[in-house]
Amino acid sequence: MTRANTPNLENYWMPFTANRQFKARPRLLAAAEGVFYRDVDGNRILDGTSGLWCVNAGHGRREISRAVEQQLNTLDFAPSFQMGHPVAFEFAEKLAEIAPGEGDSKLKHVFYTGSGSESVDTALKIAIAYQRAIGQGTRTRVIGRERGYHGVGFGGISVGGLVNNRRVFPQIPSDHLRHTHNLARNAFTKGGLPEHGAELADDLERLVGLHGAETIAAVIVEPVAGSTGVLLPPEGYLERLKTIAEKHGILVVFDEVISGFGRLGAPFAADYFGVTPDMITTAKGLTNGVVPMGAVFTNSRIHDALMQGPEDQIELFHGYTYSGHPVACAAGLATLSIYLKEGLLTRAAELASHWETAVHSLKDRTNVIDIRTIGLVAGIELGSRGSAVGARAYDVFVDCFKRGLLIRVTGEIIALSPPLTIEKGQIDDLILILADALDRVD
Ligand SMILES: Cc1ncc(COP(=O)(O)O)c(C=O)c1O
């Protein structure tokens, strides 16, 4: 079968896309290798976003495609309700080895899902089920944070804090901490976390005062908010949040869909910040993005509380047809083996200082009002053209793509997160293209 490089664009309703604008001037990718894409016209495009924060080990990894092919030819699908297959157990065991936490706090139990959104909704349901299992059945409210992104399930949008994802849809009982973004006090922070804002974690006390701790099951935050435009936690914030939550019997969930698997320079953000939550949600880098998959990691306290009751009863009425899909597990095992063999779970720490210097060199470009970096992530915030919020960053995005660089923009913020395999010279190339685009766009 041959595929046209100019397909009919009518039938595919694209996600999170201005469909009509896109279809008038499409950007179509056709191939990928290493840290580069090729578009349908054969142009090489540096992947400044690991696809969509997914491809941490770089594109076209033959170890993964071989493992996938072998798995497809051996056991293509297996049901996971009252049935199992060895690959799912093997992958969970390997994941538990790298999971954050020590002793009782180790997040060693793995519940598979099909995506980040499913991981978030799964974690929220586990939290509510856990509270009920320990006699706290009134705890059904979940707390998120303004500007948080936790996918698009009803649970995820309820705890999420991006208005466009929420305003049209009903939500489950929730409330929100204030976000921590503060340009007036923390702009252009370099060499560490933003100094100001740890006290914003006290918002959890405020919400406990407002709703009563006995109504709250869990609080979920992205340790580093990604999709909203790379917001770093203020120094001491996550520790403080954990302490307050513990005091009130509220579970802490870190949404590590983006920060997991080496993005910050440690296996997980929980390791990087030295704060172990009760659960983490993951996806994306779990399989290097090549097969859709997510996973929720929990500690034994949660897991064991739900393993009570008669042994012939299902403990958690939850799961997906594709939970523990054999092909996804095979892709995940091959991905994890690359991460470990090539030291990718900590490589961002080696590149962080070069990365920080390179990205901060954009500081004096017109319209740049903030730059923040951590590990191999960066957010570059632009001032808006009057009320047209997002228009300037979008123009930079289009300009970069034309000149061979894929970046991601959200509102007026450029987010960068290249594959963890990127070389220093390629980082410099990325910055050159971006700097030119910033100069060109008015
Ligand atoms: C922190 C976070 N949680 C959840 C999700 C949702 O993941 P998915 O798009 O795989 O459903 C994302 C996606 O970007 C994310 O960044």
UniProtKB/TrEMBL annotation:
Keywords: Aminotransferase, Pyridoxal phosphate, Transferase. Its cofactor is pyridoxal 5'-phosphate. It holds the Pfam family Aminotran_3. CDD domains: OAT_like. Signal peptide: none annotated. GO terms for molecular function: transaminase activity. PANTHER family: ADENOSYLMETHIONINE-8-AMINO-7-OXONONANOATE AMINOTRANSFERASE (PTHR42684), BETA-ALANINE--PYRUVATE AMINOTRANSFERASE (PTHR42684:SF1). This is Omega-amino acid--pyruvate aminotransferase. It comes from Bradyrhizobium lupini HPC(L).
